[in-house]
Each structure stands twice: as C-alpha cells, then as structure tokens.
Amino acid sequence: MTTFEDILEEAGKFGRCQMRIVSIFCLVSVPFSFVYVGIVFQGFTPEHWCRDPGVIEIRERCGWSLQDAHRATVSLMNSSTGVTYSQCQKLDMDWNATGLTCDNPESELTQAQLSTLPMTGCTDGWEYDYEGRQSFVTEFDLVCADAWYVDMFQAALSVGFLVGSITIGYLADKYGRMKSFLMTNFFIGVTGILVATSPNYIALLVFRVLFGFGVKGGWMVGYVLITELVGVEYRRMVGVTYQLFFSLGILILPLLAYFIPNWRWLQVVFTIPYFCFLTYYWFIPESPRWLLSQNKRNEAMEITKAIAKENKKTLSKIIETLTDENTDSISTASFMDLFKTSKLRKFTFILSFNWFTSAVVYQGLIMRLGILGGNVYVDFLISGIVELPAAFLILLTIERIGRRLPFAAANIVAGAACLITAFIPDSMFWLKSAVACVGRLGITMAFEMVVFVNTELYPTIIRNLGVSVCSTLCDIGGIVAPFLLYRLAVIWLELPLIIFGALAFVAGGLVLLLPETKGVPLPETIDDIECPNRNKENQLKSQQLENLLPSDVTSNKDVTAV
C-alpha cells in the first residue's frame, strides 16, 4: 500500500503549492505575537501619583504643567528602585491654606518640609504622566493596592491558551484542520472586539480568557497543517520559519503601539487580521493526511492531485493505492504511556520543565521592559531585533552540532545573562542592556528548540500526545510569569532576574541528560526508546529479509564476483 509520503515524492515535497500555503500561514504568527506580549503596551503603568482637588485648583489657576505641580506637591519616599515620588499616598493638607504662590512652584516648599507633613491615601484617584495616551491601567486605576489586577490580565490569557490549545487540538483532529482554523478565527474576531469594548475590568478578564482560548489553538492548528503538507525533511525548516514570523511580529508591535495610543484601538488592530484569515477558505486546502486518517480517501486524492498540478508534477497510478500509515498508532496512545518507562518519565519531566522555563523567562524578560522606566518603544524594538538571529542560529547549528548541546547552551547562556544583568549597576546602562539582549536571544532559541526536540524524542505512537501534555506547562508558566515578575519587582527590581537565571540554568543542565537525536531515525514504538540498539538490529534484519539474502551469503557472493 502507498503512503502519503510516497505520493509526496511524486507531487513535490516542498513545491510551489507548499511554498504558497506556508507563506500565507506564516502570517498567522504575526498577530499571535501581538496578543502574546501586547500587555507591555496595553497594560503599561506610567508614572503616577495621588490626585488632589486642591492641587488641581492651584495648577489650573497658575497655569502650571502637570510635572510642575507634581514636583511641588508630592513628597519623596524610598522604594525598591531607590528614592521616588510617592505614588500611593498624598499629603494630608489644605493647599489653599499653605500660601503657595504661582511664581516659582519649585522653591515654595522644600522636600524637607513636605516629608514632615502627615500622609493619607489616594481617596480621589490618581494623576498619570501619560498625556495623550491610555492603557487599561490608567483607565481602570489599576495601581497601588490594585496593581496585582494587571497580573491577572496576562494570566487570564494563559488560562485561555491552556484550555483552548487542548480543546481546539481535539476539534482539529475530529472535524478537520481547516474547519477548526476557520471557526476558531471567527471566534477570535468576535471575542477580540468584546475585549476592546469591555465596560469594566471583570468583563475584560472574562473576554480575555475567551480571546486566549481561540488564539493559541488557531496558531497551533496552522502549525500542524503546514507541517502535514510538506515532506518530512522540510518540516523542521517550515516550523522554524513559522516561529520566525512571530519574531517579526515582535518588531512590528512597538511601531503599532507608538502610533495607536489607546489600548482599545490597539486591541482592535490586534483582532482585524483574524477576520482577514477567514479568506483562507478559498486559498488553503484541507490536510490530505487528516482526510486519510478519517478514511476520506477520495477527497485526499483530489487535493493531492491539485498539489501536484500546482507544483507542475505528474502523479503515477500508485495514488490509487493511497492509504494512511498512522491509523493504527493513533488509536493506541494513552496518557499513562508518557510515564510507562523510566526513560519516558525522564523525557516527560525534563521537557515539561523546559516548556515551563521558556515561557516564564521569555515572557518575564519582555514584560520587564514595561517597568524599567526607559523609553519602552525603543527598548522593545531593540530587544525584538535580537530575536531574529535565533532562528538562523538554530538552523546553522542543529545539523552540524546536534540538538542537545545548542539547546542546553541556549538555556545556560540565558540564565547566565539574567544573573549578570541583575548585578550590573544602572550607571552602566548600555552594558546592562547588551547582556540582557543576549539573555533574550538565548531564551528565544531555547523556546524554539523545545518544540521540535519534543517531537523527536517521543515515539510515533504517543508523539502528538507527548507534545500536547508537555506544552501545557508553557501555559502554566504564562500564568505564573506576570505574578513572578511584577510582585517580586516590588521587593527588588532585579529579583525576578535571579529567579529567571536559576530556572534557565537548571533547564540547561537537565537538557544534557537527554539523548542526542541528530541523525537518529524517529522512534516508532516505546520499545524503540528503551532499546534503541535493538531497533537498529531489527532494521538491519528487515533490510536483509527484503533482499531475500542473509548477510553471510551476500558477502560470499561479493567475494566470488571478485
């Protein structure tokens, strides 16, 4: 019987048709990056202080700027970032009774005088040094005691990712890749608009979960579809390219955020591409592999013929015997198989930890840009540029060196960079930024590598299940990351970097315990994992049986010929 891989030999493993489909589908990664790290701009927390009606009255009467009034009427205090203006308390005084004049506000009351006056809470809300712009933080006053609500915004997205990737993955296996992709994108479009029009923060969190439910699931369906349409030797290249467009989205995001100052309109821009993806109905076929797995052989043959025609290839009559090579393995996979043997337990633990670490460190380093106090647009753009070489370094090293050493090195470099950055003084700004960028490059490489290393270690019978289960730790890491970053930064701004560095170091060390998969055939069964040498012997015996001659007879024949 002929498999789909055999047909691709004739139809083209990566011809014009596959290039067109991959190019179109790579665009799905761009808005996914907007959603994934958009909190840096949508949830930006600018410099803020307590609103005081008395100060507002004086400011309006005297024509002071917001900054002039801030310096003249807000006292200094110690914080985790040093001495800063008070953000969560205001002076408890009647400003009309102070004799403050309009001539020179900065010389009227000294900080020494202000520091001796009684303080009270921000009963009248806050002022924000964010003129002409609005984040959901400034709209809903999510600062001081309510600052942890910002963490919930990103955690809600990751909860949606977690549930959606499993649910939509199941739907894609049951109802088809393209049907699931199209339905998911319509759902994303609707929920994205609901996020943009949320009347309050509770509604925003609910819609954010639903939005996340569709976004990651749709992205994963696209990843599966393009890898199923190309030959085995092109899957890795296609997968890395798909993720490369995520990095391109990271570069576009700060430009969008700079020119779109309102978080609601920025959300609308994030959502519009998902409505555009509905047009893929007319350009992208269903996966022939999935059709074969559902015994829809005629439809699979028609699509395969269309692929061959676009690739300007001619199919022979072997297509008439086309069958699915994986139908037996799909039905026998179970969750407990991931822990069935000692090696599989080790793989599952190490890969799950690496998924978790990659998500925590990657998201943490990006979200950290929003609390450093510099120009967030420039900082984000520079750090995004650093991500681009990651894909090229992976493609350059994995076939020459292997998987294990680059994977481990990427984690260890990221960990070392995080630890070093934490102890570089702020006065050495450019050095601190450069080392942090090296950490960002390292964790980006690790994040991209864990995907295909995960697929190469598990046998065919549980490969999809293994990737799905291990990658759920990525979403759990996404839930933990904002709390880890924002809450620990209140204690010490660099403390999250210490945690990130430790996690990455441990992840890199654990990777060294994994076997090298370069040049090793993909395992088919669990026995292939436990006894790889026996698998090689069986392959040799199979080959000998196919040749209908044992090895010693073959050798004698060669000698006689000589």
Task: Please describe what this structure looks like.
The protein is built from 26 helices and 6 strands. Strands 1-6 form a two-stranded antiparallel sheet. It starts with a helix and ends with a helix. The chain has 3 domains: 1-46 and 139-309, Growth Hormone, Chain: A (Up-down Bundle), CATH 1.20.1250.20; 48-129, no CATH class; 338-538, MFS general substrate transporter like domains (Growth Hormone, Chain: A). The protein is 68% helix and 4% strand. Helix 18 crosses helix 22. Strand 2 and strand 3 form a beta hairpin. By secondary structure, it is mainly alpha-helical. It has helices spanning 4-11, 16-26, 29-37, 39-42, 53-62, 66-73, 105-108, 111-114, 136-140, 148-175, 177-196, 201-228, 232-259, 263-276, 288-293, 297-310, 327-330, 342-368, 376-397, 404-423, 429-457, 463-491, 495-511, 526-530, 532-546, 551-561, and strands at residues 48-50, 76-79, 82-85, 89-91, 119-121, 126-128. It is elongated. The model is unreliable at 327-331 and 548-562 (pLDDT under 50).
